[in-house]
Fold:
Amino acid sequence: MKRSRTLTLPSPTTECGRGEEGSAETYVKAEFRVPAGMADEAGGILAARGALGCAVRSTYKAKGSPSKPITLQAFFKRLSAAQFLAHRAALDSAGMLVASGPSPAPVVLVDPGWAAMWKKRFKPLPVGRRLVIVPPWEATVPNGRIPIVIDPGQGFGTGHHATTRSTLLAIETECARRTFESALDVGCGSGILSLAMARLGIRRIVALDIDPMALDNARHNAELNGCSAAIHFSSAPIRSLRRPFPLIASNILSSTLIAIAPELMRLLAPRGRLILSGILRREAADVIAHYPPPIRALWSRTERGWTTLVFARPQ
Structure:
């Protein structure tokens, strides 16, 4: 890092991380005390809430002591006081926040060239049997794989997190079993799930997200993949949708998946498949309980503590 300065936490109506005109780009670092065994899960929650990346301040993790507190650093483009408190509340409600006195104030960091470093690290990522995630600056694609071009932005989803990867695997698996004419992506983020659906042959896709920055990033990625005609991106509420979909995917927090369960069940067509991710292993049973018959859990996949569920609606 070139330099850093500690800020007084801004008021809820202001944001830190916005560089002055002509100055170097700045970012905001926030720290959270979490159990060592939950660092990956906590990082996933923060990434889903807009963090550009996360890191553990110390590489030490006590072997056999997953409950030992560690400091998880999360980096944001901008961060208001209200957002910081909301991130803490989200981790606390998930049982991942260690209460150890007042939290340190966010810190503004001058960009040390992260964009260039990120480009060096973001290499083609094979997923499943057919897909590969590639950045727009990467020209090499493994033979026989279907490329999905992702330009990292505010939208969550480059395929590297376990929840995204498992959802992509579930989409690939179900698309190999049958043909879907249409699909719904709830909480589309970067658009990666919708892009995979389109690249696997689904002709009409509706992709929803409440974050306008994520939608802009998703539309940009759709253009990079030549899929704009197949995907309709929208900020419309899910309750406004009327026609059913044979395939629905949603990779968001389990609390949201539970809250929108009635809408997802209403929109799932007969013989349809519903793919849900962003679920901690210990939360899976609770999520399943909120999707009662005629919906039934078909299969699941767990990776690094995150579970992806696939449901089916009978004929």
